[in-house]
Amino acid sequence: MRSDVPSEPAPRAASTASAAAPLGPWITPGRPGARALFAEVANLPRTIAAHADLLKGGLARELRARFRGSLLGVGWVLAQPLALFVVYAFLFTRVLGVRIGADAPAATLGVYMFLGTLAWAGVSEGITRGTNAVLENRHLVAKLRFPAELLPVQAALASLIPTACGFFAFWIAAVFTPLWEAPGARVAWAPVLFAVQLLLTAGPALALAAWNVRLRDTAQVVAVALTAMMFATPVFWVASPAVMPGVESLMPLVDANPFHHLLVCWRSVWMGGAPAEVFAGTDFARSLVIAGTWGVVTTVLGLAVFLRGRRELADEV
Amino acid sequence: MAADLAIEARGLGKRYRTYASPGARVMAGLTGGRRGAFRDLWALSGVDLALPRGAAYGVVGANGAGKSTLLKVLSGTTAPSAGAYRTAGRVAGLLELGAGFHPDFTARENVLLNGVLLGHPRRVVASRLDAILDFAELRDVADEPVRTYSTGMAMRLGFAAALGFEPEVLILDEVFAVGDQRFQKKCADRLLAERAAGRTILFCSHSLYDVRTLCDEALWLADGRVAASGPANVVTNRYAAWQDERAADADADDDLPARWPRIARVAVHDAKGRETSEVASGDSIEVRVDWTNGGDETLQLGVGFVRQDQVLCAALGTRFDGLALEGAGGTACLSLPRLALLAGTFRVVAYLFDEHGLHRYHERGAGRDLVVNNDTDEVGLVRLDHAWALEPRATRAGTAREDAA
Q1: The domain that contains B170 carries what CATH number?
Q2: Cβ contact (<8 Å) for A312 and B81?
Q3: How far apart are CA B140 and CA B133, in angstroms?
Q4: Cα of A43 vs its chain's centroid, Å
Q5: Looking at chain B, which residue has its C-alpha nearest residue A21?
């Protein structure tokens, strides 16, 4: 909503003694200007606070919907990633016998890929679903007045669930089995990393959701781009010349990839920064700052893209 | 006095743009609308409004005249393309029956979801839930998915939910469109109560009767522009007259062969012989049908009463009564002493059939829908001829009898 007054100032409510609400600001056509847009972007935390119950309800529904009608119920939250983890560990230690470094535990590469897969799956699912979030809820967007930017945000938020469940399962396994050493004090960074991952997911999701309403090809492009991005990001490979000598020339590209930095952070939290070969040339603090900065910038830009055309959405869905 | 307004609009317009292709849309988007193949349709233009607080305002107009667009813009669901408007306080819009309801969720979940979507704290929504379900009379089925509801039930839920959070301004689109006369009356009573409590109501309706009884002022939209505005009965009368005129014009346009049998006019007359569109249940009325026939075959005439929800409530035919229409034309007068229909809005339609009542040559409705009111509390579709007998259970010696006329 804009507060531009077309012809005369808004009448003051002071002229009536009643407690009734005065007339609000004039609502005019057109997209918001730079200043109004900035004010709206800055308003996101307040919007989220005002609709906290909507987001909470959405998360609860998401959890229920995922496991409704299943025998194990919420147990799947742990069972799925655990099974994945066992497969990875078995594949790389027993079948392929791949080892990183001489001293590293046998499961290293399995754990490395498992953690990368979990984080990437969350990001990828969040962006995919966020892109479709507005179109899928067109019955709401076209008929109700509510902050539609919450739809992609909610999709991004829900995508943290599989990641979080997987990490939790890994934590349990690391504490109670000899497979891996229990993570140390760096686990305290997990909430911050979740926030960074949320920003890195919500930012693209917001812009893409707005574009997808206007051009349905967006979702298709996103699917292809995410697959490409998965291979460009060190999910299944190690971005360390010490382990994979061939990647040396790719390092500048990898360093420019915010998702690489997110994975570096997650892995150093759960793997404790060891073995040294894998983490050679990485710096937890630097990666956190880079990923966090990317997250904030993409979210602000994505939100600006979304809010600029926000009022036209009802006509276009 | 401007501070006493609940809604104010100046030169309000809404443009819908349709693109020749997705590519044209991208082109228009990239060039800010300077390039690309698209067509603009102004669904609304130059609408000025000044709605005083606590008023009820009706919007009338033909289909596609921009009524829904106006309500959609004013409820903030979509942005205007020209002009400006402002509203006072919380605006609740009920733009479509069951708008925003998810078919797979229960009534309870939907009301909760709707409430938190609109920014009410879950606690507040939960505390109103029972009152909302009670008003909608859906408490017993509140835990069934909404997809199992009838249209009427979904409408009741939508209406109750929209009113449930005490909006200052209530915007309603065709809420009286669905059957169940009793609930419609309940809605009308509730709206009058809300209005008395100082809330502002803006609604559009095809039922001129509802607009006249509920509203002080009305607005008539034609092709997206204001055709008239002012006191509700003045505006609705002008609109009704225009409807009649248009129905007459439509005659000239029909592409029936020249010699084809046709109905020229259908009108309802009251007991005094005056043409009318509003009667009371129990009144004597006459339906007059002017017909012509260029050929020489015998025709049959039928007259039907169709309620707003497309229920054919009664159908009378010359063939059923052993009559037939002979000759080149005339007026068939169907008298209905003591009209049995109870309150509702009915389309009075006449049909011309061949002599066996099989092929339908022509059909025409009365220019205006017939609004039937009833003074009693009786509900239902019709008032059947009846008599009561109240017999005490214990003694068979004395029998009390009480007859109703």
Answers
A1: 3.40.50.300
A2: no
A3: 9
A4: 20
A5: B89
How confident is residue A20, by pLDDT bands cut at 50, 70 and 90? low
pLDDT digits (tens, 9 = 90+) for B270-285: 999 899 888 988 999 9
Are B74 and B165 part of one and the same domain? yes
Instruction: Kindly state whether residues B280 and B324 are assigned to the same domain.
Output: yes
B95/A143 touch (CB, cutoff 8 Å), yes or no = yes
* Distance to chain A for B85, nearest Cα, Å: 5
B393 within a domain of the structure (yes/no): no
- Chain A touched by B121 (CB under 8 Å): yes
Q: Taking CB atoms and an 8 Å limit, are A144 and B81 in contact across chains?
A: no
Say if the Cβ atoms of B86 and A142 lie within 8 Å.
Answer: no
Identify whether residues B92 and B223 lie together within a single domain.
yes
What total of structural domains would you count in chain B?
A: 2
Q: Is residue B225 domain-shared with residue B295, that is, in the same domain?
A: no
Whether the bond between A258 and the residue before it is cis, its omega within 30 degrees of 0, is: no
Do B10 and A214 make contact, defined as CB atoms within 8 angstroms? Answer: no
β-strand pairing of B217-222 with B56-60 = parallel
Chain A's closest residue to B167, CA to CA, is A21
pTM of the model: 0.73
- Render pLDDT for B116-173 as a digit per residue (tens, 0 to 9): 888 788 888 999 999 999 988 888 998 988 888 887 788 888 888 888 888 888 888 8
Q: Residue A112 has what pLDDT? A: 87
pLDDT tens figures, B43-73: 999 999 999 888 899 999 888 889 989 998 9
CB pairs under 8 A between A and B: 114
Q: DSSP strand E in B200-310: where?
A: 200-204, 217-222, 225-231, 262-269, 278-280, 285-292, 300-307
Claim to verify: residue B184 and residue B283 sit in the same structural domain: no
- Say yes or no: B189 and B150 in one domain: yes
Write out the H or E segment, with its range, that includes residue B39.
strand B38-52
What domain range is B353 assigned to? 256-373
Pick from B241, B269, B291: which residue ends a domain?
B241
Does B218 lie in the same domain as B265? no
Q: What's the maximum distance between 2 C-alpha atoms anywhere in chain A?
A: 83
Which chain B residue has the Cα nearest residue A58? B113
